[in-house]
Write a structure and sequence with these properties.
It contains 16 helices and eight strands. With 398 residues, the chain is an alpha/beta fold. It has two domains: 161 residues, Rossmann fold (3-Layer(aba) Sandwich), CATH 3.40.50; 188 residues, Dehydroquinate synthase-like, alpha domain, CATH 1.20.1090. The strands form two sheets. Strands 1-8-5-4-2-3 form a six-stranded parallel β-sheet, with helices on both faces. It has a two-stranded antiparallel ribbon with strand order 6-7. It starts with a helix and ends in a 12-residue tail after the last helix. The protein binds zinc ion (ZN).
Length: 398
């Protein structure tokens, strides 16, 4: 583990100093665009290996394979299995070599695309990403997250470049279950809550731009998400998909390795060690934003964080994002499991330490079980008591 982390840190240092990976070389979006893009794909290679999950590989048979056949490409396909794990990466590198693949096509959600990008990076092959949901910006970014086979987050790997071609076909994304886009909205708004804390004081041009874009992204999602979810395929829905799949990726690209995640993703990482696949990435991250704000509120006495948490709780109710552990299927979590998740979130290398204050294990555990607590500042208690009302909202007896 130590070696992986040291390797990761040195790679990050070198990529952030020397090169920028801001955007895919080419992004093509629209309704039904995949059918028309055989030539653009064929331009990158003749023997693609298609990497996806079981559901998305079935989808590739009807949506992608005919396009490749038309171009007379010799394709093979392989499943990433249960996660973007070292075992599946090894299996896919072998599959790519056996097929003599000269390009990788990733089709699916975040895990499928992360796996496809990392296999391509390891074999130095071009990669095409075709997202099948709006759940993440993985189709865009030069980063892959590696998990254990049980779904526990292990480490991330910065890649040399963003994908060579990103194909965002709204007709395909529209077939994904609604909760995937909801989760993508949560993951995308996390960019603001985390980037403003980790990089809000940066003097660097591109990082200032990334933080401001994160605020714009959050505002677009506040305004359009509810409408978009009511009408999949509508203009508002396409704008929201652009926000979660593309703009979230732009922010990752502009901000680079220094514009890091903070507590929301650290809490996500900790939770993956106790709940594996009970909820998807963006769902855990959304809950993690509330934990982060709760920490800012409890440990640092930040009143803006308290107000932001109340604002988010309203938004979460409106669109159906998880607000507490029970909403993540963890209503019966034991104290021991909660402590394990908190300990992993607080590991020495964790991004949680980018918070401007120290967090103790007990404080994190308290924040994790009180994400929906009402604001209880001295002021509100004072206001209530001057009106003769006790904390439970009852009129005090004279
Ligand atoms: Zn994320």
């Amino acid at each position: 583990m130590t070696n992986q982390f040291t390797e990761k840190l040195s790679t990050q240092a070198s990529t952030s100093l020397l090169s920028l990976a801001i955007s895919p070389a080419r992004v093509i979006r629209g309704c039904g665009v995949l059918q028309r893009l055989g030539e653009a794909i064929a331009h990158l290679g003749k023997r693609p290996l298609i990497v996806g999950g079981d559901r998305t590989l079935a989808m590739s048979e009807t949506h992608l394979q005919p396009v490749l056949e038309q171009q007379q490409l010799e394709f093979a396909q392989a499943s990433y299995g249960t996660d973007c794990s070292e075992a599946s990466l090894k299996y896919l590198r072998k599959a790519a070599k056996e097929h003599q693949a000269d390009m990788i096509i990733g089709i699916g959600g975040g895990k499928a695309l992360d796996t496809a990008k990392l296999v391509a990076h390891q074999l130095q092959l071009p990669v095409v990403t075709i997202p099948t949901s709006g759940a993440t910006c993985a189709a865009w970014t030069a980063l892959s997250n590696v998990y254990s086979e049980q779904g526990a987050f292990l480490y991330d790997v910065p890649l040399d470049t963003c994908p060579d071609l990103l194909i965002l076909d709204y007709d395909i994304v529209k077939t994904a279950p609604e909760y995937t886009l909801v989760a993508g909205i949560g993951d995308a708004i996390a960019k603001w809550y985390e980037a403003s804390v980790s990089s809000g004081d940066s003097e660097q041009t591109l990082i200032i731009a990334a933080v401001q874009q994160a605020r714009v992204l959050r505002d677009i999602l506040f305004q359009k998400s509810a409408m978009a979810l009511k009408q999949p395929g509508s203009e508002a829905w396409r704008e929201v998909v652009d926000a979660t799949v593309l703009l979230a990726g732009v922010i990752g690209g502009l901000g680079g390795a220094q514009c890091r995640t903070v507590a929301a993703h650290a809490v996500h990482n900790g939770l993956t060690h106790v709940c594996g696949g009970k909820s998807i990435h963006g769902e855990k991250v959304s809950y993690g934003i509330l934990v982060q704000l709760r920490l800012e509120e409890m440990v640092a006495g930040n009143k803006l964080a308290a107000a932001a948490r109340q604002q988010l709780l309203k938004f979460y109710t409106e669109i159906g994002l998880p607000q507490k552990l029970a909403d993540l299927g963890l209503g019966n979590i034991t104290l021991q499991e909660l402590q394990t998740a908190a300990q992993i979130s607080l590991a020495p290398h964790s991004d949680i330490h980018r918070l401007p204050f120290q967090v103790a294990l007990e404080q994190l555990m308290a924040a994790m079980v009180s994400t929906t607590a009402p604001i209880e500042t001295k002021e509100t208690i004072n206001i209530l008591s001057t009106r003769g009302i006790n904390k439970e909202g009852e009129e005090a007896q004279e």
